[in-house]
Amino acid sequence: MKILGVESSCDECAAAVVEDGRTIHSSVVSTQIPIHAVYAGVVPELASRKHTEWIYAVVHEALTGAGLGPGDIDGVAATSRPGLLGSLLVGLSFAKAFAWARNLPFIAVNHMLAHLYASRLENAPRIAHGGADAGLPASPPPYPFLGLLVSGGHSLICRVDDFDNITVLGTTIDDAVGEAFDKVSTYYGFGYPGGAVIDRLARKGDPYAFNFPLPNLRKGQHPYDVSYSGLKTAVINQLERFRRAGAGVKEDEGADIAASFQRTAVEILLRALFRAADDTGLRVIVAGGGVAANSFLRERLAARSDLRCVFPPLELCGDNGAMVAGIGFRYLARGETSPLTVSASARVEGFKRAYP
Ligand code: KG4
Ligand code: ZN
């Protein structure tokens, strides 16, 4: 079954064709980063306009790149939630119209579940670290496992029992981890989006040059929750100190800031994640979302030889249509479809939580 997947929840206009939830025939991601970079953040109105301009060409390229025509597609999937409403509506409406015109089954999917599904796709060998199969291309890990979903809008540590069945064990009580990367980068003028820029800059810096605080979550808050606003404020306050000293931020100081911030941001995540792994006994961790591309996070997880950590290939960490087509197949194979009346939703409906 060849599924067309369409993704337009934020600033990537993407489409892909994936067969049987596994084999990627094509994946086209058209990024709007240069358009939003001048504003140091995604401008929702501009994003939806660009999606409107690009969506036809992106889907067309996904089909021709796979050597297929519309008549070769067996089903259509699109992200319907969560994301920027105007952006979501473009991809969702296009995908619904495609399905209607070709009389194909249609499924609307949750963006976060799609991110978690990305590592089950086959195009490049997945990176698996630790455990008995260290270094070998891994087959998709059996359920259940621990999920680490880290993006610009979410930071979730969850128990994953199936592709559509997750229970949130911990989440951020304030900013998402990707958001913290982006904000720190904006304040320091490192560039946009911040994640990849800080990751690169940090390689030249000393991760122990600055000792930023780890959050001290109050008693009663859950042990797997994380917080990023304190770290973000501490890093920004350091910028004020540089400014007061008069000289601004020198190049090596910038690299030290990036490395020290990144080390702390990753430690915050891992402290909660490792605690969850120990308490649940789940020894397999599957990561997804833009921050799963972070090289320091990958290194730190690789160092834990007692855990098997599975990451999507870099090109499938950020937003893409392949993860949407992949998870869409799973629903369609189970006989589930969405009505064409389904609409977009900016927020994700609450996932099951392990605690109140
Ligand atoms: O999943 P994604 O593409 O979009 C959302 O669903 O939010 O994630 C985007 C986020 C941004 O905050 C970006 O700065 C971050 O992922 N990101 C990274 C890296 N690459 C992208 N964060 C840390 N290290 C990276 N290498
Ligand atoms: Zn995303």
Span between termini: 40 Å
The percent range for helix content is: 25-40%
Bound molecules: 5'-O-[(R)-(carboxyoxy)(hydroxy)phosphoryl]adenosine, zinc ion
CATH superfamily of the largest domain: ATPase, nucleotide binding domain
CATH class value of the largest domain: Alpha Beta
CATH overall fold name of the largest domain: Nucleotidyltransferase, domain 5
Tally of discrete structural domains: 2
Q: What is the average of the pLDDT values?
A: 92
Q: Pick out the low-confidence regions.
A: 124-137
Structural class of the secondary elements?
A: alpha/beta
How many helices in DSSP terms? 10
Number of strands: 12
Assign an overall shape.
globular
What does this structure look like?
- The structure is a single chain.
- This protein is of the alpha/beta class and 356 residues long.
- The protein has 2 domains: 2-123 and 317-333, Nucleotidyltransferase, domain 5 (2-Layer Sandwich), CATH 3.30.420.40; 127-311, Nucleotidyltransferase, domain 5.
- The chain contains 10 helices and 12 strands.
- The strands form 2 sheets. It has a 7-stranded mixed beta sheet, with helices on both faces. It has a 5-stranded mixed beta sheet with strand order 3-2-1-4-5, sandwiched between helices.
- α9 (295-302) links the parallel β10 and β11.
- Residues 10, 115, 151-153, 178, 181-182, 193-196, 199, 289-291, 293-294, 318-319 line the site of 5'-O-[(R)-(carboxyoxy)(hydroxy)phosphoryl]adenosine.
